[in-house]
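quick q for whoever's on today - can somebody do inverse folding on this one?? i tried earlier but teh output was garbage lol. tokens:
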């Protein structure tokens, strides 16, 4: 999911984590800010962009973008 609003990003990703820890359901839906897409398009690596710090795994999304 691509969010254009930083506050939406701050609600969507942590909300998934809270639901997961409550044992209700696991979504694991990557949520990125639209600016996050600039880094890979400029040739920056995922570890440089901090995608490994996200709650939902977005690395598989970046791999698909590289194809």
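ok took a stab at it. sequence:
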């Amino acid at each position: 999911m691509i969010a254009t609003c930083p506050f939406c990003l701050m609600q969507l990703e942590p909300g998934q984590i809270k639901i997961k820890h409550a044992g209700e359901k696991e979504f694991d839906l990557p949520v990125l800010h639209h600016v996050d897409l600039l880094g890979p398009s400029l040739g920056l690596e995922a570890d440089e962009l901090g995608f490994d710090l996200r709650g939902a795994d977005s690395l598989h999304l970046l791999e698909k973008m590289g194809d």
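fwiw The first strand starts at residue 2 and ends at 3. also The helical segments are 6-21, 38-41, 46-49, 59-66. so keep that in mind when u check it
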